[in-house]
Amino acid sequence: MNRYFLYLVLINMFINAIIFVPSILIKYSFDGAVASVLLSIPYGVLMTFLYSKAITKYPEKGLPEILANTTKWMKILHIWFIQLAFFTAGLITLLGFLDIISRFVNPEEPRLILLVMYLAAIFLVIGMPTQRVMYFAEIVLFFSIPFLGFIIFKAFSSKDLSWDSIWEVTTHVFDWPSLKAFAASSYVFSGYINLIIFNRVIKGKLKIWNYVFVFIVGILNLFTTFLIPIGYHGADGAKEYLFPWISTADSLRLVYSPVERVIFLFIMLYMGVTLISVSVHWHVALELVKSTFNEKAKEKKKWLVLMAIAICSAIMVQQINTLQLNQLTEYWMILRLAVEPIYVLSFYFWAGRKIS
Amino acid sequence: MIFSRKRHWFILILSASLILNGCGYKDIDKRFFVLAIGIDPAKHSTKRYLVSLKMAITRASREKPTDTIIVSAEADSMGEAVRTIKTKVERELDFSHAKVIILVDKVAKSGGNSGIIYWFTRRRDIQEVAWVAIGKPSAVRILHIMPKSERLPTNSLLLALGEDGSETPYIIPVYLFELKKRLIERGLDPLLPIIEVEGKNLFQINSAGVGNKSKIKLILSQEETKMVNYMLNMESKSAQWVERGKVKYIIDTQKVKTDYKIITPKGKKPYILMKVSLKGRLEETSRRITNGELSKYEETAEKQLSNEMKAVLIKLQKANLDPLGFGLRYRARHLNKDDWEKWKKIYPTLDFKVKAKVQISDTGLIE
Questions:
Q1: Reported confidence tier of residue A42, pLDDT bands at 50, 70, 90
Q2: I want to staple B264 with a disulfide (CB 3.0 to 4.6 A). Which of B60, B270, B294, B308 is the partner?
């Protein structure tokens, strides 16, 4: 198994397990969320398979290197359009998590200051070479996965988890799948798309076990994301929570640990996971933008891009409240769902033709 | 060049942390940590509630670690009460350590109190793992109880409700999030332990109140509470009291497990098949019982246990209350959309069949 590839997938799964996906899925839990989740699993694995197959035909090359010899306008069209998607993906994750921090950790701190601190750390990471961003991700995951795994294990094994509520939701499996729920649950799988740049660190082809892993972990992740909050807060009650997973983490009690409340451990771990998730997205966006500049002006223009990112995030964090952000994310996810298969399939066929 | 750029960033991050220190933080000695919240009906005014907060006094020395202060205010809502209390104390209230919420039974019995519970879950700083209980005769009295054994304020309540200390089947601890779930889940009704004042400075928790979605309707006795506890599979260490003819004996239970099925045969009356298995040994008898005749006594115990359990189930059914979640189980096992409507018709006509299996391993150290 290629661990760098799996990190990319895992980061996306972890981050979506708490911020937007659970609340969207739970909102539609009686209106087709179960069917959407079930459908999204084969869809997500298929997309992962197609895209990674196509891009690993160019070992250790990101998209800019692959497109180096094609015509310029195609490059610009291709690249300018994708990095906007990556930038917004990182942005909504960041805004969502800042909202959580400012609610649960330090409500009196202005969000702008939290943003500045996060941006400082993120900019430090995204300017690094791709290989080092990957190392950084590895370190953060290395420290947080055992604890997150422990928390999830605790959540599963607690007697407060009501399996009847979970079963009640799963009995709605024959409801017609809902588009928004499908968009949300398939987003969980789209960590593979970061290969667009991170293919630079992937040597050789990906073996079949990688996809088996994505399949299994995807099922587990969707189950935890969607059904654990329902087990704790009820099939009817979980909908009332704005952040179902954060409230679920607060409903766990570690009796003999130094800190009884899990929520603080949970948010602390997620601070790191959010940092790398946003960094990975924005690193991709930055690298793609950089590849459209000519060699001389690269360094200066990079700063301009970073400035633009900072200003854009600052405006968003000031202007957008939680509910608007949730709305926006739902639409963003649908848009992503529309664009993703077109992009992946066209790239797959383009790469296939090119090689042969 | 690269090095200097990095240092640049480093300084920027450090300076950002300087901004952090200023605003959001208040020292411990400028805060009151609320440990328990009590809600009584108001006595002296036309307002609805009398809200009392029990707060720990933080001080530098370690003398009198159990020092607390109880401040009350009358108001129509929780939010109003807390704001009024804030005007009575000199420090900022901090709810992050609020672990016990006590409703007095009059408040719990008067309808429409779910709003108050929602205040707790809506606020981000009150933990979801706080315990909720009913206080008798008043919540303030419960807050005032400080047993001599208590080394930290309200710790005795926390130990009792958290089952970290005494383990007994008569306490059914309920977390705040659990209560909120029960307030809204169709087919699972609220259930709260009842804390009573006992003597001068002790409390007693041995009964439970069962309610519908808006108020407490039924108070369970000690033995009924135990049966509910068995059926919720919460606590196995208990004692089951049995009478066979003139012989009375007590089984010290080591393991109690229950499992039920809702069976809806076509054309016949639907019923719930409750299976109980109880393992234990004899602890006390009024007459000598030899190990050889244990099976006879097991049989009697089975009969009595199933009768007791059936009585509780019927009592709950007559009150149309469902704290055990039969309705939820029915919804979880049926695919049709109108399963809840169907269940509401089925539940009042339901039969209960209890199959008890008692295993007495021996008569203890003495035959």
A1: very high
A2: B270
Interface touch A162/B328, C-beta < 8 Å: yes
Contacts of A236 in chain B (CB under 8 A): 184-186
Residues of chain B in contact with residue A106, where contact means CB-CB under 8 angstroms, are: 24
Give yes or no for B211 touching A (CB within 8 A): no
* pTM reported for the whole predicted model: 0.88
How far apart, in Å, are the Cα atoms of B90 and each of B39, B51, B350? 22, 18, 58
> What residues of chain A lie within 8 A of the CB of B20, using their CB?
109, 113, 117
Per DSSP bridges, beta strands B202-211 and B191-198 are antiparallel
Q: Which CATH class is domain A3-351?
A: mainly alpha
CB contact B325 to A (< 8 Å):
yes
Domain ranges of chain B: 28-220, 221-367
CB distance A236–B16 less than 8 Å?
A: no
Q: Tokens in use for A260?
A: 């009884």
Query: CB-based contacts of B274: which residues, under 8 Å, 6+ apart?
Result: B231, B258, B259, B260, B309, B313, B352, B353, B354, B355
- pLDDT tens figures, A297-325: 777 888 888 899 999 999 999 898 889 99
Task: Read off the pLDDT of residues B134-186 as tens digits, 9 standing for 90 and up.
Answer: 998 888 889 988 888 888 888 888 888 887 777 888 999 999 999 999 988 88
In CATH terms, the fold of domain B221-367 is GMP Synthetase; Chain A, domain 3 (3.30.300)
